[in-house]
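User: quick one
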Amino acid sequence: MTAEIGKTRYGCNLQGALSTLEAVEAVVPIIHGTAGLGIQSFAANKSGNGIVGSINGYSVPSTNMYEKQIVFGGGSRLREQIKNTVRVIEGQLYVVLSGVESEMISDDVVAMTQEITDQGYAAAYYKAPGFRGHARTGYEEVVAVLLDQIAGKAPKQERETKSVNIFGIIPQQDLYWQGNLREIQRIMGSLGVKTNRLFGDGEDWQSWQSVPAAALNVVVSKWGVKAAENLRSTYGTPYVFIENPGLGPDTDNFVEIVGEQLGISKNVVDNFLYSEKKKFDYVIRQFAEYYYSYDFRRKISVIGEESKVIRYGEFLKKYLGMQIKTAVITDYEGDSQEQQPVKSLEKIISDIVYSDDTERIEEKLGPDNEIIFGSELEAGAAARLNAELFVIGNPQNRELAVSGVDIGYAGAIALIEKISRIGRGI
Amino acid sequence: MLEERKILTREKRTNAVTAYQGSKKELQAVTADQEIQQRIRTFSQDKKDEVYEALRLLSEIGDTVVIVHGVVGTAILETSLIHGQEQPIWYSTNLDERDTILGSDEKLRDTVRRAYEKHQPKAIFILGTSVVAINNDDISTVILEMQEELPVKIISIYTDGFKSKAEINGIDIVLHALAKYILAEYGEKINIVDIISITESRKNLGELERLTGRLEIKCNIIPQFSCLDDITKAGRAEAAIAVNSDEAEVLLSGLQEKSGVKSIISRVPIGIEGTAAWLSALGDTFKSADRAHAVIEEEERFFAEYLKNKPFAGKKVFIALPIRPAAELALFLRGIGFEISGISAPYIDSLNKDALEILPDDLFIKIGGGQPFELANILGKIKPDFYIGTDGSAAWTAVLGIIPISVSQMTLYGYKGAAELIERLRQAQTANEFGNYLYKNDSLPYKTSWLKKSPDWYVKLEVK
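Assistant: Done. Structure below.
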């Protein structure tokens, strides 16, 4: 049973699925439900982390169901909508997302999708009622739908020994999803490994066809595990789940594991990491003056998705000597009281809380916090605690975060650049 | 009207039409009938709904809390309305599958109690969504019980997101609730005017406040950006005037019905004529017609040169705004030389169709919120130079080589708005580098075969 939420920060299942599909070019979502849910999601995305793709917001096909269809069934309206969508909008794949209303009245989404598939169009459906699961469910399940579409349909291809797919970075939910996918791609590229980002610029439905050819699936948050499991059972592709792909030198572990799995020579890996560390050290030396002038040994709390909390928590403690009072993990499955924190986090933080309720989160933050790492929703808490707010996640409404990155060496350098303003009263 | 528990939908109450394409003259014929033969879209794109509009408006009223009673996603709009520490207060009952089967009244009770204890607001609004409407969850009983327990007004907003296709319906429902439960009754009047604003930006209201000030009339702007007390006390005003009378109609009627506040009916204060009409109407009611006349004359002097020289002669503009502001804007733009290529408005009904009268008979009009696929088709054929619209629906027209102007963040109303618009149009015309880049490098997702078809291909008469 779910509880009510004060000041929500995430959308629902359908919105999670929609935001995921929007990030794959030439994939056309079709909403089967009442109007407006996609527009709310569009408004939320516009507030900071971009509006991606050529089909988003007002251009997303939607049946805009109204009373008559809710009373008498919306199946025929959906049939008409799908048939006309393929005539109006260019697409390589059409995906029907059925919302709350159509699921409550049990419209036959399966049969309606099958009809257009029978006509030779690539089409799929995902039952995405907002009362089942959450925004992460939308990502997990719609990725499963896309993978099912490839299964048995993608042309037979040789496995590429040095290529990986990345799973676990949720488009438009992770504030820095674009930059983070690119940073992983950059790191892999330096080892001579090809990366299928699968989302963002240049990634379309064609890119997904090469998913089975990858030698390894790299999972960087718990939300990517399902996809990797699916690919392991379908194609026998191994995967690595790395809880902390790292910020700064913490990235080394991630790179070494992937390098080893792909049989990259240790020399290549070491040389790359050495050069990255040199760059990082050059930055740290510059930051030193600020660090001591403004004394960055601060008491802080970190609020965000688990993968973010792990990365920031470890980096801020291990390298900047910050003292983490409370960590709040906002993305979890089931009851917030029955969560088991990952071990690495328990080592560095004694107070780990699970909540996506802004008011409850605020209640957990003690009076001695000096910096709150969280979202714009924490602005009130930070002000009351007389602490600085450092925005690391959504919602964020300060800038269009298209190149922002908080993973890898690039993420650490970006973080230091941004954090250097703290203490200067600007 | 206030005796009714719920207000009828715009379709039933005012014969609202939300799907149409054709000339203004035909549109007038269509909307002239008592019983309108509705049109529907057999292909549609997402658009705002009444829940969106109601939630947005409620979030702009201070000292209140909104509980969005539904799935978590129906509240996510709120994250776009936060400005630093300035944040609306909202809750989602976050309904899951179990709630949709077993009912959600206990959860709603808990949320109301929590909202009250945490914030002690002056009112708690419970916003209905499709899940609770389909399940027929009993919100009224919860409110009755909670009302006995807590010393706060708990008000049901009867939105569901599917009974009306016109998003303005969400505004009507909110205004009905405000009029019925918040407005206090007043016999004595004081010499102020209520200005009813529903969708205008703060900048626009700043300009209207400046102009009312010049007439030496005090104003109380509600319900947007006001506190609940400002609404409660609105009945003391001598008279009420809306910025856009069809959006504000329910509250205007409510004020009249409850406290005998006289409604001043006027054109929308956009452009020179519209603004003058609005100020004159105010001046006449508040016995300062001479002052109004003098202010209008003085403010209008600035525009004499533009009206004479018509700097935009030979340029075409397409307007995508609700019909009242659109028509008034069209009139102003014609005054400075523009040819109007067409208008797109979300709905038309008996409360606003008179606005069509000032438009040419053969002017192309599209009715329906959003639907950029239709607009892409239309704009590709009529090739206007400018497109004036709002946030979320203007930027993409640059891809077609049109210059988009989004009026959402600028001043459009009053004399300041008219001057700012002229300045924007001039700037946009000379500095279109960004638009040119988009034109050359971006594309729209529509099939060429669609763009060649008649733009009303998917607008059909509804079969009953």
